C-alpha cells in the first residue's frame, strides 16, 4: 500500500512538471542551489546575530579592579590587586581621551555595529598585496570581545566567535559603555591595566585630569606597550604619540595648530613610586586584609578583584616613625643572629589601631608579628592579678602581700633576684615586678576570678595554673591584644575592641561595612586610676626605668624565661600607655628551641618604646600628664622605710622639769614616715610615743637614779608595716 502511494505521487509530480515551459526545467537545479545558499546565509546570519549570547559571559564584563587602602583624609596607603587596574565609569573619562583611542584604533567606531566591513576589506586587500598579514580589521568592540571572552588563537572559528560577541555587545550596550569597558580593560605595560591605573602610573594623576597630549600618549601604548614605553623608549613613544595626534587632526578632533603645539611638547611623564619600593605600611595593611576576612568575610582574592575602598584608622606619620625606629633601633642580643620584634599602638579613646609594625623590616608575605601570640611574661600581672584583686574589694594598693618562697603543689615561683622581704605592699610588688607576691595574690583571689577578667579583656585562656600570674601561658597573646587590653586601664577601665577598618565601600562608592564601636567596663574608674598611678611609678622608678621619655607614660615590663636554657630569656616586652595611646613592643625569635635564646632582658624593648614615643610626640604632641578622674585623688607613692637608723640619747637640764632626756636620729627624706619610740622595760618593749617625719623625741620626767633603754622603729603610714628597729640607746644620769 505504501509503495503504491509513493508511485502515485511520483507520477503526479511528473505529470505536473511536464506541463512547465522548457526554460523552467532548465532552471530547476540552479534554483535549488540558490535557494539552499540563501537558506544557509539566513541561518549563518541568525547564528552570528544570536550566537553571541553563547560567547559573551556577562560576569567577565565586570572587570577585576584593585582595592585601595586609604586614610580618613583620602591618602592612598596601598593598593591590593592581581592586576593593577582601577575601573572608572565612562563618564569620568574625558572626551578627548576617548577620541584619541578612537582615532588610532577604530576611526569608524561610532558608525559600525560591531564589525567594520570597510576595515575588513581594506585589511584583506593589503594582506593580499603584501603576501602577508600587515593590517588587522578588528574594531574596538571586537578587541574588547576577544580580550574578555576568547583566546588569541588565529583561527576562523575564533574570529567568527569574536564577530558574534561584538555584534551581541553592540546590541546590548551603548557605544560609550563599550568604549569605557575597553579603556578599563586594555594593557598599558609595566603591569598596568586600564586607563585610570595608566594615568596614575605614567602621569601620577587621575584620568579626568589628562590633557589631550597625555591622552594621545596613552592611546599609542596598547599596540606595543613595551616598545612604546615612555620610560624605556621615549623617542619611540613620542613618535607614536605624535601619530595619534596626527590622526586626531585628520578626523577633525583637533585643529592643526593644536596638533603642532602638542607635537612640540615633551612627554611630561612622571613615574609613580610602586608598592614594592615602600614597605613602611605593609604590616598595617596585612592586618587590614586579615580583619576584612575575619570580620567582614571579604577574602584576599576578592580584595584583589573587587575594587573596594577601605578607609582605615592608620596615622601615616606615626606609622612611619614606628617603622623607622623598629627597623633601625637597638634590639636585645640573641644567640642566633638578629632578634625580631613587633610594635602596636592603639587609640585609648576608641580602640583604633593607629600603627602596627610586624617586624624589623616587614614585607608582605612574611609573618606579621603584631598578630602572632607570645607568652607575655610579667606584662600580664596588672591584668590577671592586681586589677582583679583591687576589683574584689579585699585589697587596696597598700595591702600587704606575702613575699616569701612558697610552694603550691609542685609549683614554686621565685623572685627574679631571689630576694624576699617577707611582706610587701601590692603597690611595691607591682612596681618591682616581684613574682612571689603575684602568685600568692592570685592564689588568694582564685584562678577563676583572674580568668573572668582576662576574658572580659578579650584575653581568654584555657590555662588553669598559678603560672598565669607570671604570663606562663600555653598560647600567650599578640602585641595588638596586649595594647588593646592596656588601653582599658588608660580609658578609665573601659575596654573597646581594637580595629583597623573604619568603613568599606564597593566599586560604586556605596558603604557596605562600617565599624561600630562598643565598650565594656572591665575595671572601675578608681581601680584603673590606681593601676595608672602604680604603672607610672614603674616607669619612673621601677623595672621600666630604662631609656628616656619626657611625657606621661605608664607601663610594665615582661620577661619570659627560656624553658630549656637556664639564665636566658625567650620573650621580652614593654606594654603601657600614654593618655592618648596604648602600646606594646615584643622582642624575640620566630623559632623556638634550645638554640634560640635572648642574652638580655626587658630593658631593650623599654628603651626602644620610649624612643618611638619620643618621636611620636614630635609629630602628634603627646600629653605631659595623666588627668585625675573626677572625684579621685593622686595615689601616694610607696614609702621606702630607712634601715640602720642610729639613735643617740642625751640628758638636758632646764624648763619646768629640771631634768629632760632627748632621743635623736637622722630622719629619712620622706617626711611621711612615722617613727615609733619604744622603751625596753623588764624584758618587754613598751611604745611610749611617736613622731612623723622628725628625728627627735623628747623624754619627760624620769628618775635620775634609774637608767632607761630606748629604740626607734620606722613605720610605713600607708601599710602600717614596721621597718628595721634602730640601735638601742640607754639614757643615764652622770655626775
From TrEMBL:
Ranges where the Penicillin-binding protein transpeptidase domain occurs: 341-613
Swiss-Prot/TrEMBL keywords: Carboxypeptidase, Cell membrane, Cell shape, Cell wall biogenesis/degradation, Glycosyltransferase, Hydrolase, Membrane, Multifunctional enzyme, Peptidoglycan synthesis, Protease, Transferase, Transmembrane, Transmembrane helix
Domain Glycosyl transferase family: 73-249
Keyword Disulfide bond among UniProt keywords: no
Entry annotated with the keyword Cytoplasm: no
Reaction catalysis annotation: [GlcNAc-(1->4)-Mur2Ac(oyl-L-Ala-gamma-D-Glu-L-Lys-D-Ala-D-Ala)](n)-di-trans,octa-cis-undecaprenyl diphosphate + beta-D-GlcNAc-(1->4)-Mur2Ac(oyl-L-Ala-gamma-D-Glu-L-Lys-D-Ala-D-Ala)-di-trans,octa-cis-undecaprenyl diphosphate = [GlcNAc-(1->4)-Mur2Ac(oyl-L-Ala-gamma-D-Glu-L-Lys-D-Ala-D-Ala)](n+1)-di-trans,octa-cis-undecaprenyl diphosphate + di-trans,octa-cis-undecaprenyl diphosphate + H(+); Preferential cleavage: (Ac)2-L-Lys-D-Ala-|-D-Ala. Also transpeptidation of peptidyl-alanyl moieties that are N-acyl substituents of D-alanine
Transmembrane segments: 33-56
Annotated protein name in UniProt: PBP1A family penicillin-binding protein
Source species: Halobacillus salinarum
Amino acid at each position: 500500500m505504501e509503495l503504491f502511494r509513493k508511485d502515485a505521487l511520483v507520477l503526479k509530480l511528473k505529470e505536473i512538471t511536464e506541463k512547465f515551459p522548457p526554460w523552467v526545467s532548465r532552471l530547476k537545479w540552479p534554483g535549488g542551489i540558490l535557494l539552499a545558499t540563501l537558506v544557509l546565509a539566513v541561518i549563518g546570519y541568525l547564528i552570528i546575530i544570536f550566537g553571541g549570547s553563547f560567547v559573551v559571559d556577562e560576569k567577565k564584563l565586570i572587570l577585576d579592579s584593585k582595592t585601595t587602602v586609604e586614610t580618613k583624609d583620602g591618602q592612598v596607603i596601598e593598593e591590593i590587586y592581581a592586576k593593577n587596574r582601577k575601573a572608572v565609569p565612562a563618564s569620568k573619562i574625558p572626551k578627548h581621551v576617548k577620541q584619541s583611542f578612537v582615532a588610532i584604533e577604530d576611526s569608524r567606531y561610532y558608525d559600525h555595529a560591531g564589525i567594520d566591513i570597510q576595515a575588513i576589506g581594506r585589511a584583506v586587500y593589503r594582506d593580499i598585496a603584501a603576501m602577508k598579514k600587515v593590517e588587522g580589521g578588528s574594531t574596538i568592540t571586537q578587541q574588547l570581545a576577544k580580550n574578555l571572552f576568547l583566546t588569541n588563537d588565529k583561527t576562523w572559528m575564533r574570529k567568527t566567535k569574536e564577530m558574534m560577541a561584538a555584534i551581541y555587545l553592540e546590541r546590548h550596550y551603548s557605544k560609550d559603555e563599550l568604549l569605557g569597558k575597553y579603556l578599563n580593560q586594555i594593557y598599558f605595560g609595566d603591569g598596568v591595566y586600564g586607563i585610570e591605573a595608566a594615568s596614575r602610573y605614567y602621569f601620577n594623576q587621575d584620568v579626568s585630569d589628562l590633557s589631550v597630549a597625555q591622552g594621545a600618549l596613552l592611546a599609542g601604548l596598547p599596540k606595543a606597550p613595551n616598545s612604546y614605553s615612555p620610560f624605556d623608549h621615549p623617542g619611540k613613544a613620542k613618535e607614536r604619540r605624535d601619530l595619534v595626534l596626527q590622526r586626531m587632526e585628520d578626523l577633525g578632533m583637533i585643529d592643526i595648530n593644536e596638533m603642532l603645539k602638542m607635537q612640540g611638547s615633551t612627554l611630561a611623564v612622571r613615574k609613580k613610586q610602586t608598592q614594592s619600593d615602600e614597605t613602611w605600611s605593609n604590616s598595617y595593611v596585612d592586618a587590614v586584609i586579615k580583619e576584612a576576612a575575619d570580620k567582614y568575610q571579604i577574602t584576599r582574592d576578592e580584595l584583589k578583584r573587587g575594587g573596594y575602598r577601605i578607609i582605615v584608622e592608620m596615622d601615616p606619620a606615626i606609622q612611619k616613625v614606628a617603622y623607622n625606629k623598629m627597623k633601625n633601633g637597638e634590639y636585645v642580643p640573641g644567640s642566633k643572629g638578629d632578634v625580631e620584634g613587633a610594635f602596636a599602638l592603639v587609640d585609648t579613646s576608641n580602640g583604633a589601631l593607629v600603627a602596627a609594625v610586624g617586624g624589623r623590616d616587614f614585607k608582605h608575605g612574611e609573618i606579621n608579628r603584631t598578630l602572632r601570640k607570645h607568652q607575655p611574661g610579667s606584662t600580664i600581672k596588672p591584668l590577671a592579678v592586681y586589677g582583679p584583686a583591687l576589683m574584689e574589694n579585699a585589697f587596696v594598693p597598700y595591702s600587704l602581700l606575702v613575699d616569701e618562697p612558697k610552694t603550691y603543689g609542685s609549683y614554686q615561683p621565685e623572685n627574679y633576684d631571689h630576694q624576699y622581704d617577707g611582706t610587701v605592699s601590692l603597690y611595691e610588688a607591682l612596681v618591682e615586678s616581684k613574682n612571689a607576691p603575684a602568685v600568692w595574690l592570685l592564689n588568694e583571689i582564685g584562678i577563676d576570678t583572674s580568668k573572668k577578667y582576662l576574658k572580659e579583656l578579650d584575653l581568654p585562656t584555657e590555662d588553669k595554673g598559678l603560672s598565669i600570674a607570671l604570663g606562663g601561658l600555653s598560647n600567650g597573646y599578640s602585641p595588638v591584644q596586649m595594647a588593646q587590653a592596656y588601653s582599658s586601664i588608660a580609658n578609665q577601665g573601659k575596654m573597646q575592641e581594637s580595629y583597623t577598618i573604619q568603613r568599606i565601600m564597593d566599586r560604586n562608592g556605596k558603604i557596605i561595612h562600617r565599624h561600630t564601636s562598643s565598650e565594656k567596663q572591665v575595671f572601675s574608674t578608681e581601680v584603673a586610676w590606681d593601676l595608672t598611678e602604680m604603672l607610672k611609678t614603674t616607669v619612673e622608678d621601677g623595672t621600666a626605668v630604662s631609656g628616656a621619655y619626657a611625657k606621661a607614660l605608664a607601663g610594665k615590663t615582661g620577661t619570659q624565661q627560656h624553658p630549656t636554657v637556664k639564665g636566658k630569656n625567650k620573650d621580652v616586652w614593654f606594654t603601657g600607655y600614654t593618655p592618648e595611646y596604648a602600646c606594646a613592643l615584643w622582642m624575640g625569635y620566630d623559632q623556638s628551641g634550645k638554640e634560640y635564646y635572648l642574652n638580655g632582658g626587658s630593658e631593650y624593648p623599654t628603651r626602644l618604646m620610649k624612643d618611638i614615643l619620643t618621636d611620636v610626640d614630635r609629630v602628634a604632641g603627646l600629653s605631659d600628664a595623666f588627668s585625675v578622674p573626677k572625684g579621685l585623688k593622686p595615689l601616694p607613692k610607696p614609702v621606702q622605710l630607712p634601715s640602720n637608723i642610729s639613735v643617740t640619747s642625751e640628758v638636758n637640764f632646764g624648763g619646768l622639769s629640771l631634768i629632760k632626756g632627748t632621743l635623736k636620729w637622722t630622719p629619712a627624706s620622706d617626711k611621711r614616715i612615722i617613727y615609733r619610740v619604744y622603751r625596753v622595760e623588764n624584758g618587754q618593749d613598751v611604745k611610749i610615743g611617736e613622731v612623723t617625719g622628725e628625728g627627735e623625741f623628747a623624754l619627760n620626767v624620769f628618775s635620775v637614779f634609774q637608767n632607761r633603754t630606748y629604740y626607734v622603729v620606722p613605720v610605713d603610714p600607708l601599710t602600717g608595716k614596721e621597718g628595721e628597729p634602730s640601735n638601742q640607746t640607754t639614757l643615764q644620769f652622770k655626775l
